[in-house]
Amino acid sequence: MSRPLLLVGLAAATLTLGACASKPKTLPPEPGTAATQTTQPPMQQNGPVPGSQADFLASVMSDTVLFDLDRYNIDASDQGILQSQAQWLGRYPNKSVTIEGHADERGTRDYNLALGERRANSAKNYLVSLGIDPSRVMVVSYGKERPVALGSDEESWARNRRAVTVTVN
What we know:
The chain is an alpha+beta fold.
């Protein structure tokens, strides 16, 4: 083999191996230096993020209004719950909510969907009477399709006859 060809082969092998070599690793800055102080994330606050669903749940009496059998009227205890929700909504004027109406398992699907809607609308109407803009409150009825308590007894049925407020944005 000729000497120039051998040199070209050696040069190619050297370049190939050099390309595979690992790159030098940079060590992290020493603790307490300015570099670590600027790259640390900001301190997280204690508690839920203001305006979030978790904040809503922590701030109001309850997210749920319960109803009697075949009823959709707002009683005194429901009024207190909805007043606390209206106060929270007053603090966050850009937030909207959906009120989900529910029924227990008794009755037809259509009857329970209509009853759930009446329950959700009763809660909405009470919030509106407290000064909440109606465009911020949507309603949906799930009828008997989403029970919170499984069971065919009065305790389960009572827990399923409800309107639940959920923050949207």
